[in-house]
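Submission sheet (multi-component)
Chains listed below:
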Amino acid sequence: MLTPLLDMFTIILIFLIVSFTAEDYDLTLAKDVKLPESVSRSMFKPSVNLAINGAGVSVEGRHVIALSEGHASEAAYTAGEIPELVEHLAAYYDELMRPIPGEDGAEEQAPIDEPVITVQADRGLDYRTLHLVLQSAAKAGFFKYRLAVLKR
Amino acid sequence: MFDAYQRTLAEVEELNMIPVMNLFIVLIPFLLSAAAFYQVAVIPTSTPQQVAAPATDEDTSAVMVNLVIRADGSLTLSVSGGGADEESLRGMGAELPAKAGKADVAALQTTLASLKARYPSSETAFILPEDSVGVQMLVEIVDSVRERPSATGAVETLFPVTVLSQFVAAPPAEIVPDVDLELLPEAPPGAEGAGEPAPTDAPAGESP
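Outcome: structure written.
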């Protein structure tokens, strides 16, 4: 009686075990962001998480500024930065780059080699906005980005 | 003897499956919740930084590629560095018109592969998209600049270091003041970014 059910369970179990990856992605995918598709195979590494969609920009899951249909204010484009975002990211930068005090009076250690930001950009955005956000991040000290993409 | 067979058959039918079922019922929801149905990868990239001028003896085995992406999908490839003179650098560049509304990725990769074969240690490509280029299109082109899948399934690396800058259209000729360029003071070394069209931003120098 139970045999077909068991067969099914066994198959599902094997499939799930095979597709199970023990790696823990510390990446919370932002809601309402449709990532672009890519053939890149570079692996994700933990870093400051920035998400852009048509409605706004959020850093580490916290909404920072609003966009109207994927566009920032003209003043921001003229200035080449979004001041609120720069301010917000600069706080993260200071946090990341603060030296870790060594134990027992040992020398302070630099916390990380270089600050990196993971950018989850919606595939419908245009480059003008993306570049503005990247420029703002650069002003805050983050020059390197990882553009999050979905593997094809 | 026949009785013994009958007994074995009966025992097989009565195999107690409840513990196995319990195990499955625990394992399947756990694995389902942990399963990743999409796989996220990343494209490492950066914005241009203002750095000290490179050593005077220019590396002749590496060139830098500037790729302008227009909203309609047409691409302009130009090459700098490599110790080559202006004329041959211009010869290496290419205009790749859009094909059926999309960027001509195949032609781009062919051009880049031949550049890579000529200058094996070149790695850097400056990507200069126009304002209205979409993110999906940008990612596709960056992908094709970074690597080319070959027929055998192996991947050929082209220019893995991509720098995202912005395309700045040259001002119309009539509003350019008639200035004798010879009289202008020379730009300090390292001030220019990706060659032409120069990125307007070099944020590294501006932050503390």
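Remark: Chain A has a mean pLDDT of 80.
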